Amino acid sequence: MKTAVEWYKKEIDSLIEKYESKEISKADFIIMKHNLLYPAKAMEKQQIYEAYDYGFENPNVTGEQYYNETFKSE
Fold it and tell me: Are 49 and 41 in contact (CB under 8 A)?
């Protein structure tokens, strides 16, 4: 699983490549970049919910342990 920030960075990098290779216009780049915020924010919200729920189920696990178990495998 990727964090919302990691996903957003990957998507932005892909858009930059498309813009630099002239696959998309500057206007398209701006619109597409803006539209990436919505799924990234939704992903972040879901990840917060999951972390909160996990904390209740596993009260002895630290935030760092949760992060490492959930996101560090990639």
Answer: no
Q: 40-74: per-residue pLDDT in tens?
A: 999 999 999 999 999 989 999 998 999 898 888 65
Query: Which one, of 43, 41, 12, 42, lies nearest residue 29 by Cα?
Result: 12
Nearest to 70 by CA among 8, 5, 6, 2: 2
3-class secondary-structure state, position 12: helix
Task: Sort residue 7 into left (φ over 0), alpha (ψ -120 to 50) or beta.
Answer: alpha
What is the rounded CA–CA span in Å between residue 32 and residue 66?
A: 32
| Amino acid (1-letter code) at residue 42 | A
The letter for the amino acid at 66 is Y
Token match 């992903």: residue?
43
